[in-house]
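hi support,

uploading two proteins for the ticket. first:
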Amino acid sequence: MAISWQFIVIYLLGGALAGLSAGLLGIGGGLIIVPLLATVLGYAGFPSNEIMHVAVATSISVILFTSFSSTVAHVRHSRVAWGVFWCFTPGLIIGASIGAKIADLLPDSAMRIIFGTFVFLIASSMFKGNKLKNTKHRPLPKNYILTSVAVFIGMFCNILGMGGGSLIVPYLSRYQLEIRRAIATSAVCGFPTALTGVIALALVGLDEQANSIPGTIGYIYWIAFACMVLPSVAFAQLGARLAHRLPSEKLRRIFAWFLIIVGIDMLCKAVFDLFLNVVSQ
């Protein structure tokens, strides 16, 4: 695999942006790391059929540390809805374990399409959330419903390489949980999800082709991880501080527009790859 200072710089900058988004938007950084690695790893010489799998697993490994860093910052501001966290955690762990196995079975192009489509749906949900601010307050669902929803969230986190914020934040916003509390709660939930994901994705990749790629253990590319983790942790603290200063409406708009940009990028790459496969046959 090609390792040069250019790749190192890209990984460092990607880690910084991932940490900033984790603290600011509660998304764990996966929506930056996965598209970034999905692009860079191709130039680094990774086999095309393993790129998304490695990108997802490496993203989850970085999220494990960024979520912990942003969790510390959000807890200091006392905005975490701990009741929601304790209901979500068992479901997140179960779902993340299932998602790791599903990700192992999916082809690379399918993962790109799922990723791109998914973020468009989440962006749409966030834009609709803007219209709910004057509606009647909706209480959170019962505990068993929250746990069941968390299974679904944890599963998609490991398929898409995210910490859960892209689902948890809009879901909690539907019930009019204040956006800063939703972001803080999402950041805390990212830790058990990522911990389960790191273990599961490392294990499912041990017998796969990814294990023969230099610098990897299972599907986790440790070189990119080592470059990303420190700046991501540092910038997660900065993002969390900004999250408690910016207006709620502005945070929601940033979140939604960012997802749209990422979705367009990922879907375009997926369509281009499918076109190349058809032409080459």
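and the second one:
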Amino acid sequence: MDDSYTDDPQLYSTVYADVVADIEPLVALMKGAGGRVLELCCGNGRILLPALAAGVGADGLDRSLPMLADLRDAMAVRGLEAGVHAGDMRSFDLPERYALIVIAFNSFLHNLTQNDQLATLRRCRAHLAPGGRLAIVTFHPAAAKLEEWAAGEKLVKDIPNRPGPGRVRVFDTTVDDRIEQVRSVARRIEFIDDAGSPTRTEHWTFRIRYVFKPEMELLLLTAGFGHWTIRPMESGPDGRGAFVDRAAREGDTLLWTAWNG
């Protein structure tokens, strides 16, 4: 499991500052959980902080100590409270039983083997209250996209640098092992000043294991979940997203919801 790209919380937040479409619908899901919520792979609080601000009773768990330290600092500044735990989604053990467990933003895909995937699902099920739900957000791979991303370095995004001046450009070079379903990403992050000149360059590497719909269904069943639903996410021109009721398609971002019991 690769997570070195989370060693710099400020850089992480800058690179993903434009990822906002899932925040509102996930916070709404957490508010309607009917009990306490756990966010796995919570990082430095992209989802958890707005959920806590909205009054959700929640805890967070992550492997990255720098991200958790940044989360605690942000909570203190905002006067927010939550249980913040260092741990691995494959092996965590907490005393609480939750109405809802959330794994957002493709974080489940950092499980690089089926054993890891099943270990995570089983730990989640063990931490759900009777009738509780597990919510996982992942992208569904599309054949055309796999071909497109195999063609060399691609510009992923060009966004304003917040809170600093200039812009941030993110480039990915991707190699897909379609037998193991593992995508290896070499990411180059360029900071550009207002005159268009590079001022800083950072490099990340990470891997994810993408999951197809029938495989995820089998994983959930094997882990002991007997019922689940799938809802794709759609985003409007204003950047706001929603999980909708329609059939899943290749390339969709999917919300998997599985029930305990």
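thanks. also noticed: The helical segments are 9-15, 23-31, 48-53, 65-78, 114-126, 143-149, 213-222.
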